[in-house]
Amino acid sequence: MTDKNSPVLRVDNLESYYGPIMAIRGVSLEVREGQIVTVLGANGAGKTTLLKTISGVMDPEKGTVVLENEQIQGEEPDRIVNRGMVHVPEGREIFPLLTVAENIAMGAYTRSDQQDINRDTEMVYSYFPILKERMSQAAGTLSGGQQQMLAIGRGLMASPRIMLLDEPSLGLSPLLTEEIFAIIRRLNEEQKVTMMLVEQNAAVALGVADYGYVMELGRIVMADDAATLAASKDVQEFYLGISQDENQRGQRRWKQRKTWR
Amino acid sequence: MPGAELGGKRLDFVQLIVSGLANGCVYGLIALGFVMIYKATEAVNFAQGDFMMLGAFFCLGFTNADFMGLNFWLAVPLAMIFMGILGYVFDWGVLRHMSGQSQTSIVILTIAVGFILRFVAGTVWSHEPVSLETPFAGVNLDFGGVVLGVNELLIIVVTIILTVALFVFFSRTKLGIAMQAASQNQLAAYYMGVPVKRIQSLVWALSGVVAAVAGILFASKGAIDPSSGLLGIKAFAAAAIGGFGSLPGALVGGLIIGLIEPLAARFAPDGFAGVARIAPYAILIIVLIFRPGGLFSQTQKKKV
Question: What is the complex's ipTM, to 2 decimals?
Answer without folding.
Answer: 0.83
